[in-house]
């Protein structure tokens, strides 16, 4: 389901270019460098997202991805930089941050929890909370479902046609 919902989200983003601000296509070499840095392998809808959009905003919503190869001196919406920063504190290595909620909560791809398409599920994580108190709540069965939800909420909230 995640791949189908991703295609729908992608279509809606392209239809509303005026509120989409993404860095654009990322090369296979840059993606491989990011994967090596984080010790994960991107797949399915998230891989297509970073290949197609890189990282950026849809309306007021930032969707984290890959900006460039400088993962140490970057900022939001760079998922690699953000994830490495959070790993210095208490973010487990199986999580990659893809969205920030604004209340301190982040949404992550969980590479220990794969869906039927072998894509990571999206979970909620509270960086300020000790790991022993974390309950990783699954918020989407995959990145495609998550992205479509973010896109639809932004369209509805902004009253975009």
UniProtKB/TrEMBL annotation:
Pfam families: SUKH_5 (PF14567). It comes from the Bacteria. InterPro entries: Knr4/Smi1-like_sf. This is SMI1/KNR4 family protein. It comes from Salipaludibacillus agaradhaerens (Bacillus agaradhaerens).
């Amino acid at each position: 389901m995640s791949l189908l919902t991703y295609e729908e989200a992608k279509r809606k983003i392209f239809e509303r270019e005026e509120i989409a601000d993404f860095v654009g296509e990322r090369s296979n070499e840059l993606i491989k460098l990011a994967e090596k840095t984080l010790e994960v392998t991107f797949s399915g809808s998230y891989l297509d997202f970073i290949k197609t959009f890189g990282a950026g905003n849809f309306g007021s919503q930032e969707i984290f991805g890959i900006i460039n190869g400088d993962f140490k001196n970057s900022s939001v919406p760079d998922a690699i930089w953000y994830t490495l920063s959070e790993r210095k504190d208490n973010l487990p290595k199986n999580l990659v941050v893809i969205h920030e909620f604004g209340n301190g909560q982040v949404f992550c791809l969980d590479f220990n929890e794969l869906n039927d398409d072998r894509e990571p599920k999206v979970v909620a994580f509270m960086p300020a909370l000790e790991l022993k108190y974390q309950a990783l709540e699954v918020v989407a069965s995959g990145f495609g479902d998550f992205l479509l939800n973010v896109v639809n909420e932004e369209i509805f909230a902004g009253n975009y046609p």
